[in-house]
Amino acid sequence: MLHTQTYIVNGSFDYAISPLDRGFAYGDGVFRTMIIRNGLPECWPQHYQKLVADCAAIKIVCPSAELLISDLQQLFTQQEITENAVAVVKIIITRGEGERGYAAPAITNPLRVLIKTDMPTYPNSYFSDGVDLHICKTPIAAQPLLAGVKHLNRLENVLARMEWADPNTLDGIMLDCEQQVIECTSANIFICNGDTLTTPSLNLCGIAGITRQRVIDLAHLIGLTVKIESFKLDQLFAADAVIITNSIYGAFQVKSIQHKRWAMTSLAADLREILKEKFYLKENF
Amino acid sequence: MLHTQTYIVNGSFDYAISPLDRGFAYGDGVFRTMIIRNGLPECWPQHYQKLVADCAAIKIVCPSAELLISDLQQLFTQQEITENAVAVVKIIITRGEGERGYAAPAITNPLRVLIKTDMPTYPNSYFSDGVDLHICKTPIAAQPLLAGVKHLNRLENVLARMEWADPNTLDGIMLDCEQQVIECTSANIFICNGDTLTTPSLNLCGIAGITRQRVIDLAHLIGLTVKIESFKLDQLFAADAVIITNSIYGAFQVKSIQHKRWAMTSLAADLREILKEKFYLKENF
């Protein structure tokens, strides 16, 4: 019953994580989360390119795309692949095992872990009315060497996510120590004024998601220009609309933050539409 | 042959780490490293107190001391305990397994991992002449919510430690983004001027080690006063002496950094002497 497993470690269903793995010891690794439809990862070229870049940022040699796709295939049955099944897969790459101490081993064997979970279902109201956000008190620290990278040091996101329990609040906005808006705990953020989208610079902190990049690249298709520029909460509250993006839901408009409410527009639906070209892995497997 | 194992997970030699463990996924946990002599952890009260405090900082309920000591016992044979054996044990506590996403599970089962390694041997020259340090370019980010905590988000230390390969360089000094000296990658740091030791404030970043705290508490025994105050590299270079401390070697004087050299004093030896009262776990096991 191989295919009922929900994770695969270095290509095997029998492996677990070594306590000596540096991903476990130090968060010495990176990850990505993506939708798999019919056994095919959505936006695979973008995800793999980002995985390679994030590995390079911390000097890990990323395993080949072929190896990761081969792992991925094993997580799905032929039935799932043919029946239009949708799931979420998280890929984690670490530097692998090491001795005690921070020094990386001379020869590394990066570890790869793929974890399959159900596709989350979102209330219809998220699409029709928008979503509610919390404003997090947990700041994001400025670390230029790791800015933009989706690495495994995510305690800030964990602490920020603990700040609210209301299940109707989808996410929380995180600010840097200068009170500038950076992102949400699990999403990037855009404000819209007229026909201009603005998203924060992530040169000092934050995760540069691939959906953020796709919005930057594709917004012109619906007549919008995109600026990458820092802004604070007062500018966000004054915006015509606020949008959050990630690889799972694409884009949602924000309905309310604290006492502020925004009128619903077609913006998030328009963005989801241009994001629909998902750039599936073209290989036939 | 249970006792040849080098690690124990949740009290068992048969467990490994789940890929769903939040320590692995997010670095959502804390750790400590200590010397074990005759099966007894040195400075156990201080280590356990710090472990509880660090767990509390990220809202993990620390496993009981009894449970951790019971795990520890299993790592050592009766022969090792009676033959004055010395080893290093690292204790890792994580929030345990969780679902996908940053939200912590409603009911958590913290994971405990103890890893036993050989006691490192240091060249005699480290004691007689002092040690050489590198100055790291990797900055430490300011994050007041996690400052002082020995958590598992250690990518900064990993990147900093990659900056030098010379085996004669013991450690590297890390600065914050304001160019203030904070610590070394695996040690705290003190400068000495006259009869005053100064060690950086760790209110914004860095790890507040228990040996640092013991030096702060005990320095009066050798006629020194201790100030906790930020300083920059020029003040460090102008100091009479520089000392680094951790739980494994206690204290070393710094011999050289770049082109600067310091004359050897008895300071590190005096500090190692007052640190000798190791506050062993008193229980008889």
Any overview of this molecule?
The structure is a homodimer of 285-residue chains. By secondary structure, the first copy, chain A, is α+β, with helices and mostly antiparallel strands. Chain A has two domains: 2-118, Aminotransferase class 4, branched-chain amino acid transferase, N-terminal domain (D-amino Acid Aminotransferase, Chain A, domain 1), CATH 3.30.470; 124-274, D-amino Acid Aminotransferase, subunit A, domain 2 (D-amino Acid Aminotransferase, Chain A, domain 2, Alpha-Beta Barrel), CATH 3.20.10.10. The first copy, chain A, has nine helices and 14 strands. The first copy, chain A, has helices spanning 22-26, 44-57, 65-74, 78-82, 124-128, 155-161, 210-218, 233-237, 267-274; strands at residues 7-9, 29-37, 40-41, 86-94, 111-118, 131-135, 169-175, 181-184, 188-193, 196-199, 225-228, 241-246, 250-257, 260-261. In chain A, strands 6, 7, 8, 9, 10, 11, 12, 13 and 14 form a nine-stranded mixed beta sheet that branches. The longest helix of chain A has 14 residues, at 44-57. Chain A is globular, with a radius of gyration of 19 Å. The interface between A and B is large, with 55 and 55 residues.
